[in-house]
Amino acid sequence: MKNHHMPRKYAAVFALLTLLLFFTNCHAGNDSKALIWQIQSDTATVFILGSMHFADDNLYPLNQTIEKSFEACQNLVLEIDPLAVDQQAVQSYIQKRGYYQGAESVVDHTTPEVFHLLESYVNHNALPAATIYKMKPGMIALTLSSMQLERLGYSPDKGIDIYFARKAKEAAKPITSLETLNDQLDMLFTMPNENSFLQYTLIDLENLESFMNDIVAAWKSGDAPAMHELLLAPYEGVADYQPFIRKIFYNRNLRMASKIRKFLKSDQTWFVVVGAGHLLGDKGLISLLDKKSYTITQLDNEKE
What we know:
This protein has one domain. 47% of the residues lie in helices and 12% in strands. The chain has helices spanning 11-18, 64-71, 87-97, 112-124, 129-133, 137-151, 160-170, 181-189, 194-204, 208-220, 224-231, 233-236, 242-264, 285-288, and strands at residues 33-40, 45-51, 75-78, 175-177, 269-275, 295-300. A six-stranded mixed beta sheet has the order 4-3-5-2-1-6.
């Protein structure tokens, strides 16, 4: 199996992308910008906030700019509504789509070099080898990255998505989902370049904390160009990873932008929370929404 090379300095990014998450442990503080944009049409207002799917208590309280934007809206929009997920159905779907059946295992789909990396990681961390080896590479990357982030103190139960889902439920605000969980899982389980995908996740799992410090600094200052350089620019220059970028970002961005344009044709207010990587670059949501049709403003953090 051919192994496509990728600069190792970007391997930690690869592990983060595995989780479709980008920012954790970030407090907006007194920095000037927030990672939220206000988009206005003649009839509607949409706020788009970059999401943190894993976080810890240090994230909260959120800056009042974000909280007041949510309070001003009639509707909450999420990638998926975490409160509506049928956990039993999800587990059944993961078992069917995320694991190899019969005698097949990950050893049949990776190079000896990559399987050795996996075997070493499993043994070093005393993980259940039989279970891990039945997982597809995307499922392994998701599982190991999630475990590493939780070791660092981050939890999906502290994430932005579920935080606002709970607030919307308490306030009886409608919640709209842009995608389904099955769509997201299928994307992960059919990732292109699976061998390299798993390889670079394994290489830099231990470096996630230091990498995320850079992400935190960019998030706190609302520096979208800096985050783009950290998260997406490395892939945009590597031809072998264009199928991956298109699948996980560009194609989904187009579908999300189409739905957001429908919100902007309404007479209501909408608070949209999506993974922050979807906002970045010339193919991100902010650029895709036609500035000639709408007034688009990145909001300042409210000083505390």
